[in-house]
Write a structure and sequence with these properties.
8-stranded antiparallel β-sheet, Thrombin, subunit H
C-alpha cells in the first residue's frame, strides 16, 4: 500500500482530512501547499511549518528523526515593562533584556518502512527516539536547511511525548520540544568582540 508520509503526519497531528470536492481543491490548493525555503521569512511570519529530514549527531553517533517530521519554531524576547506615573503618559517603558533561545517543536509519526510490516508497531523508531532523548547534552544538527537559515547548529531536547493512536497499531505519533543551544566558546568569542576598543 502506497501512502504519503507528509499527509500521514498532517492527519496524525492536526486531524487534517483531504478535500472532498476536486473542483474546489483545484481553485484552493495553493493555500495548503507547504512553502518552499525560498520564501521562508515571509512564511515564518505567517506561522509556516516545514517537513524536513532532521538528523542530529552526538559523539560520532547519528540519529534520524523518523519520516520527515514537521518542524515549527519561535523565539521570544525578555522585555521588562515598567509602569510610569502621570496622566499624560500612556503605556509602559520597555527595557530589552535579551533574546531567548529558539523554541523548536518537532512533530512526526513512526511507521515501518516495509509496506508488508505497516501493521506492526514501529518499535525500532520509537527506541531510536528514546535513545536520542536520553542524551542529556547538546546535539549537533546535521545539514538541515531550515535550521541553518537561523544559524541553529545545536539543539537540546527538553520534552518527548508519545501520543495515543487509537485503532492504529502500526503508527506512533510523537512530539519533541527542543531549544537551540549556542556553544559556550562562541559566546566567549562574541563577548571579546564587543569588549574590544
Amino acid at each position: 500500500m502506497e501512502f504519503d508520509f507528509k499527509e500521514l503526519v498532517a492527519k496524525a497531528h492536526f486531524d487534517y482530512v483531504g478535500p472532498a470536492f476536486p473542483s474546489w481543491w483545484m481553485k484552493n490548493k495553493t493555500k495548503f501547499i507547504l512553502p518552499s525555503l525560498l520564501g521562508i521569512n515571509r512564511e515564518l511570519i505567517l506561522g509556516g511549518k516545514y517537513f524536513q529530514t532532521l538528523k542530529v549527531a552526538y559523539k560520532g553517533q547519528q540519529f534520524v528523526f523518523p519520516n520527515e517530521p514537521l518542524i515549527s519554531m519561535s523565539q521570544p524576547k525578555t522585555i521588562v515593562e515598567t509602569g510610569t506615573v502621570g496622566e499624560e503618559r500612556i503605556g509602559n517603558v520597555k527595557e530589552y533584556i535579551c533574546t531567548e533561545d529558539y523554541q523548536i517543536v518537532i512533530r512526526g509519526v513512526c511507521v515501518k518502512e516495509d509496506p508488508e510490516e505497516r501493521d506492526q508497531y514501529p518499535a525500532e523508531q520509537v527506541l531510536e527516539l528514546r535513545n536520542m532523548y536520553a542524551i542529556n547534552d547538546s546535539l549537533e544538527v546535521m545539514n538541515n536547511s531550515f535550521l541553518t537559515l537561523f544559524d541553529i547548529k545545536n539543539i537540546v531536547l527538553k520534552n518527548l511525548e508519545f501520543e495515543e493512536m487509537a485503532g492504529q497499531q502500526g503508527l506512533q505519533k510523537y512530539t519533541i520540544t527542543a531549544v537551540s543551544d549556542q556553544d559556550f566558546y562562541a559566546d566567549l568569542a562574541e563577548k571579546q568582540k564587543v569588549n574590544l576598543p
